[in-house]
Specification:
The chain has 272 residues and is an alpha+beta fold. Helix content is 21%, strand content 35%. It has 5 helices and 11 strands, in the order ββαββββααβααββββ.
Length: 272
């Protein structure tokens, strides 16, 4: 969707002759509370991916705030397990499966390699996006239930006191339901999560998947070395969705998120 940055995570952007952009990263916890979390936490990875990709596009003059856009795919890999939060990085265009995407390389304050991120997106240049979204939201909202939603216990999904669970207890061993609202997924209820407020954003989905993995492994502090996400359909706020185990192997969990009969998101998590 159209995004206008009203604060900055990155600074000192420099556009190189080849079009890549170097930058430095904020360490201001007051402005960016998610920096209280461990560097490998999915909330951290997905939040900085958004801000870095937008800000570097602005620096290159390729960002159009009047056009709606969406992330369609990303993957990430944590590198040095001792690395701290990102202090500097570089973003460049790369080819991913024959399409133009972006790659972000990040380093901590000791110049240790912290994380590599890649992604692709789409810009809606001609579609009546607002009208289409209203029709979609109306269709999915019709599937809302009046029954109260029961969330998993906070200590089992490993959320801090300033955060709230996003998913139910496991149903059997292979699925859980989720419900993300402005009351549990946006400030001021959430200290670390934020987004457009129009729909469930990538960072919400990443955190819901982390909570599922915490329940599945029995480890509220489960740590990931990387992951991959494909976004195929918008997930709406205020309407329950389903997270189902699509595959499992040693050190890996694959999930499928569906909502109101739509296949929305595929998620693969690599457990450290």
């Amino acid at each position: 969707m159209p995004q206008r940055a009203n604060k900055q995570y990155g600074h000192d952007h420099e556009v190189r002759p080849d079009g890549s952009v170097t930058f430095r990263c904020s360490d201001d916890i007051e402005k960016w509370p998610f920096l209280e979390l461990a560097p490998h936490h999915p909330i951290v990875i997905h939040t900085i991916n958004f801000w870095i990709s937008v800000e570097c596009s602005i620096a290159r003059g390729t960002f159009d705030p009047d056009k709606w856009s969406a992330l369609t795919w990303m993957d990430w890999g944590c590198l040095d397990p001792e690395a701290g939060h990102a202090a500097r990085g570089v973003m460049e265009n790369v080819e991913i499966d024959g399409k133009v995407g972006f790659a972000i390389k990040l380093f901590d304050a000791q110049d240790r390699p912290y994380c590599n991120i890649r992604g692709r997106g789409v810009v809606f240049r001609t579609r009546n996006f607002e009208g289409w979204r209203e029709d979609t939201k109306s269709e999915i909202s019709a599937n809302r239930s009046a029954a109260p939603f029961v969330y998993a216990p906070r200590d089992e999904v490993g959320v801090e006191e300033c955060e709230l669970p996003l998913i139910s207890p496991l149903e059997g061993v292979a699925s859980a339901r989720g419900l993300i609202t402005k009351e549990n997924g946006m400030p001021p209820a959430s200290r670390y999560l934020s987004g457009s407020g129009d729909h469930v954003n990538a960072v919400h989905i990443a955190e819901a998947a982390r909570q599922f993995a915490a329940l599945k492994t029995g480890d509220p502090k489960v740590r990931f070395s990387g992951g991959e996400v494909s976004f195929d359909h918008y997930v709406e706020l205020g309407t329950p969705f389903e997270l189902a185990l699509a595959g499992e192997s040693e050190g890996a969990i694959d999930l499928k998120l569906t909502q109101a009969g739509h296949d929305c998101t595929s998620i693969a998590l690599r457990i450290a």
